Amino acid sequence: MNQLEGTIIAGRYEIREHIASGGMASVFKTWDRRVERIVAIKVLRSLDKNDLKAVERFRREARAAAALAHPNAVTIYDFVEEAGQYFLVMEYIQGPTLKQLIGQRRQLQPREALEVAIQVCAVLQVAHARKYIHRDIKPQNIMLARGGAPGGGLSDGGAWVKLTDFGIVRVAEEAGLTNSGIVLGTADYLSPEQARGETLTAPSDLYSLGVVMFEMLAGQPPFGGPTAVSIAMQHATATPPPLRKFNPNVPSAVEQVVARSLQKEPEDRFTSALEMQQVLRSCAKELARKQAPIAAQPSQAYPHQYAPSADGQGQFPTNRGQY
C-alpha cells in the first residue's frame, strides 16, 4: 500500500489507489468529496519545497495546463499545496493508455493510427498557438477515454484521445530532475533538438508524434538501445528504418507522413500541427475510399468525425485501463 493511500488532501480529496508511476510523478485514483466524483491526483516527485523558483514554475505550468481547455486535453481541475507536497488534480480517464493498447495489439490498423494522430494534432494546434510546447509526446501520455456504448469495440464504440502532462517536463528540466538533459524514460520519443539540448519549437512535438505513429504501426519505436543516451543520439544523427520494413500493410502515403515528421531538421518537417492534421485527414479519407464497398455511402465507410463530438469519437477498444 502506498503511503499516500487513505490520505485526505485539502479536506476534500480522498486518495484511494495508486494507479501509475513515471520518472517524475505518481498518479492516484482519488474521490473528490465536495463534488462527489472520481478524479486523478498527480504528485510531482522530488520537487524541493525550499526551491521557491521550482515551486513557482510548477504553479505556473499547472495554471497554463488548466487554461488549455480542449476536448483532447486532460482537464486540470485544481492545484494543491499541502505538507510540502504539490498535487495536480485532474480528470480521471476510464480507459487504457495508447502504450497499453500497443502492448495488447502490437500493431494498430493504419486508420486507427491516423485517428489518434489527427486528434493529438487538434490539441497541439491550440497549444502551439499559445506558444506552449508539450515536450513529452509519447504513448504513455496519450489516453483513450471511453466513448460510445459500454463495452464497445472497434466497430461500435469509440474513444476520444486525451493528451496529458502538459508542462510537467518543462518543470522537471528546469528543476534539475532530468538526467543529462534527457527526461528519464522518454528517450524513445525525443526530437533531435531535444536530444542535443537545443530550443524546442512546435515541430519538436510533431517529431515526437511521428515517433508515436511509427510505434503504433510498426509495434516498436524507430530506435532502440541499451541506454537512454544511446537512443537519444540515434534520434540526433541516425536515419530511421523504413516503416514498411516492419509492417508492409502500411500505405505508402502514411509512411511518407511519418518519414516527413521524422526529419532531423525542424524546417524539413510539417510547419504546424494544422498542416500535419490536414495531410493525415487526406490519408484517412483516401484509405476509407479504397476500403469502402462500391455500393456504400461515404458516411457508412468511415462514419466518425475527426474532431470530438457528442456522438463519440474514434474506433478503439474500450477494455478497461486506469489513469
How would you characterize the overall build of this protein?
The protein has about 325 residues and is an alpha+beta fold. The chain folds into 2 domains: about 10-90, 2-Layer Sandwich (Phosphorylase Kinase, domain 1); about 100-300, Transferase(Phosphotransferase), domain 1. It contains 10 helices and 8 strands. The strands form 2 sheets. A 6-stranded antiparallel beta sheet has the order 1-2-3-4-6-5, with helices on one face. It has a two-stranded antiparallel sheet with strand order 7-8. α1 (about 50-65) packs antiparallel against α4, α6 packs across α8 and α8 (about 250-260) runs antiparallel to α9 (about 275-290). The chain is globular. The protein starts with 7 loop residues before the first strand and ends in a 22-residue tail after the last helix. Mean pLDDT is about 80; it is low at about 150-155, about 175-185 and about 295-323.
Give the biggest sheet. 6 strands, antiparallel
Helix content: 25-40%
What oligomeric state is this? single chain
Helix/strand/pairing class, anyone?
A: alpha+beta
Q: How do the helices and strands follow one another from N- to C-terminus?
A: EEEEHEEHHEEHHHHHHH
Examine the coordinates and then state which fold CATH places here, giving the name of the CATH topology of the largest domain. Transferase(Phosphotransferase), domain 1
Q: How many DSSP H or I helices?
A: 10
Q: Determine the strand fraction and express it as a percent band.
A: 15-25%
